[in-house]
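To fix ideas, we now present one chain and its tokenised fold:
***
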Amino acid sequence: MPDVNRKQRVLVVGAGPVGALAALYAAGRGDDVAVYDLRDDLRDPSTTPLNFTKSINLALSERGINSMRHAKCEGLLDAILKESIPMHGRMIHGRTQDGENYQEPQLYDAKGRYIRAVDRAMLNKRLLDYLEQMPNVTLYFNHKLTGADFKKHVAWFEQRTVARTDHAQNPTGNAPTASDRDRPKEIAVDFDLMIGADGAHSASRFHMMKFTRLAYQQEYIDTLWCEFHINPKLSDSSFAISPDYLHIWPGGSFMFIAIPSMDKSFTCTLFAPEAYFIALAPLSAEDFVSSFSQNFPGVCPELISPEDLRQQFTENPHLPLLSIKCTPYHYRSSVVILGDAAHAMVPFYGQGMNAGLEDVRVLFDFLDAHDVYNDSLTLATSREERREGALNAYTSQRTPDAAAINDLALRNYHEMSAGVKSPLYRMRKWLEESVSLYLPSLGWSTQYSRVSFENQRYSEVEKAVARQGKMIVTVIGLGLVGLTGVTAFGLLKRSGLRPLRALFDRLQN
């Protein structure tokens, strides 16, 4: 009989927010946890994260908050929320036909709920700080996963002496020198369960594919992104624009957004087709600013100087947006992938990190439900068998949910870049929010509220919103029929049956 009292050896690959939270969940249940990451310590300001930038802000919403709440780490969530900024809605920027710049607020939720802007580095630091305090957790940085045998439960890592600061898609000249080309020392690590949370270009997923028939779909959309920065006001170091909103300059096929930071600055992102970036690059300084001002009124020179705008566009990388779907997320009882490793998505719903954090909660809910942490000798199945059952259940539930939010994120680009200015979008939002407020028993809610402020499964959100959409079309159709009927009745009352008789005669002829 296996030693049921022996602690599970959990190996987490990736020390980003998702991997760090997974390690906290496992350590909190008594597992022996080892966390390995390709990069140097992510708490070091000089370490460039795998997203290529050092200042990226993220949208933290209910799913991510709820997942950290269930980690049961006293003080963790409070510490993170204290360093976040509430964003109550979108602030839409544009220009009137008269040439005047305008700002139009659109609240996210009729009930006053909001999302939060958080700094990724801060969030990662808080999670790693809590991990480091746990006696059953060990952190290993500068370790590259080079292989794994998921039948024998062993993985191999290269110990790197020079931290990597570039990426294959964004090389910065940190290529190995002649002395670095000697193969680094390789170590073997035994484990019971590997949790792969090592991003879209996941080594965990790559090695898992050698053991299971993994269906894999990868898509680069025709949109690049580039990061910009709005400094605080020079006069009093306050926010240059309201920090209560996620600011959007919609442009149809492109858009510019700004998210507030704790230092009173804004992290901004330009999303546009590759052709737009190519067209901007050779422009003169004057034409460059003119083009930017025409498409994103009020940004330059009001918020970013012409010199800074051109410099940031030139020096900051223009990066692709990747969407990944795959299944299964596990192999037997030995490995499971989470976050971007399983379902990288475009950022237009602000759910990439939130979905990854929710992966952790859902995974450990299944591990608990399958008694993986029940050491009772009366159980008929082994811990390994119970763990395999939990991973099977996780893949079965999470695959359609991840596919749903992946698709919703792709569709939301149109809403953010163009739909927010559409009268039809505003009418549907108003109608759904009105029903939600005044007829709560119907259980109506906007798609955004279901995704960002509730914990309903993503696949169920998609179905519920589709049902609401059909009902709205029916109501509008009945309304139009009723309006047509009233109008027709008025005409008949004024002119008798002559219009109907004339219509009947035309149809007969």
